[in-house]
Hints:
It is a single chain. By secondary structure, this protein is mainly alpha-helical. It is 68% helix and 2% strand. It contains 22 helices and 2 strands. Strands 1-2 form a two-stranded antiparallel sheet. The protein is globular.
Amino acid sequence: MWVLHQPIIISLKARPNRKPFAYPLSKKEAFSFGFQSRPKTLNVSAAKKQLEESQTQKPESEKLSLEDNGSEVVDLGWLPAFPHVLIASMSNFLFGYHIGVMNGPIVSIARELGFEGNSILEGLVVSIFIVGAFIGSISSGLVVDKLGCRRTFQIDTIPLILGAILCAQAQSLDDVLWGRFLVGLGIGVNTVLVPIYISEVSPTKYRGSLGTLCQIGTCLGIITSLFLGIPSESDPHWWRTVLYIASIPGFIVAFGMQFAVDSPRWLCKVGRTEDAKTVISNLWGASEVDKAIEEFQSVITEDGTDSNSRWLDLLEEPHSKAAFIGGTLFVLQQFAGINGILYFSSLTFKEVGITSGSLASLFVGVTNFTGAICALYLMDKQGRQKLLIASYLGMALSMFVIVYAIISPGDEQLSHDLSIIGTIMYIFTFAIGAGPVTGIIIPELSSSRTRSKIMGFSLAVHWVCNFLVGLFFLELVDKFGVAPVYASFGGVSFLAAIFAYYFIVETKGRSLEEIEMSLNPNFSDRGK
Length: 528
């Protein structure tokens, strides 16, 4: 989900008179996709056994199906929630767009506004975005707790739209800096908001797959910005057009969220139980209403609501463990070298004859997108932990392949081929697990009371690490060489796989409340 450092060359039937997103699907109208999964085991504590009984009855969202002559079942239980998730994922599309939008036009911008050749000012245009994102992430929890995700989405489009337009109309460096800061502020809020919203409105069985739309949206945004940026190589004023285009997804999100639903969990916490029941019935199935409301209220009674939560709660169990896991996952993700690999990917492709930087960037973006599509299929089949471990092991292996290609005294053409293979392997394996799983697993492991704050803290850690990697990467390469730095990336990836094995618990097939009751010792003790 989270390829982020800006200077890096990323080379990544509706019924009448009803709201379009809020209509219930009867079994005759619903379609099913074909995914049939058995209840999965959550290895989180000794209390897990007491939860197994809750899986004996399948939710209605899993029963929505279309049978062809009684032989094939196409499972579309995800369909009622999909429009809402899709609108939320448009925020990630905007995120990806802003990641890639500066890669080509930055030269034209610097030339037209008078700071061409000043690497410090060019870097400032990039780093001010990260500063805004850090502030947006750390402050997002309070807004989400008070207003809910839907309204926060709409409010957050204001800095995103204004920032994009300000950059597009910029007549000075200050205009660009303020615009980039506003965009970063909005992106920081979105990176926290989207995973929370998707995890809370998605049916349990499809939560992982729908959550992968975050990564897919980011990939599509990157590819779109890189594609639209190609004319900037010949048109020095084209950068204004691509920045004006950046405001369009903000309007789409603001309008679309007017018809989307609020999280049923948030509705229940603020006392709007009837509204929560309606949302659950529409998205998950009428048979799920009583069970879900009972779970929501049980968690609220035991742990309180997020309106009563404090930042200091993150220092107490069980919240401290979730915060530790969230922060560590993002530290490992960033220091595993994704931004460094993307930085050198254009140079690597040039060595084998792909001289166009934009074409190389698009090739890498398509590879990232392909991996995200695979994650969409595998997330709720293989589970989060397996994908995360396999992803980091694949990234480590890819790093060592590239290191071997660099230091081996053999055929130069073979070295170039190995570098290409290693780069593609790394980006693909990142997109399968380390990218999407990190954003999905953190809200799943977080309690309802502190979910927004844990996500805000984790993303703030992410932005800090992102900034540090971008600040020191080239200096380390100049001092030690590419091979030692890449070897360290491989080592961090291997450590991340070990961390995932020992600290990440499997969450597929369990509701957020079941996960929380398993991890919270207060629930576990009460069940004994």
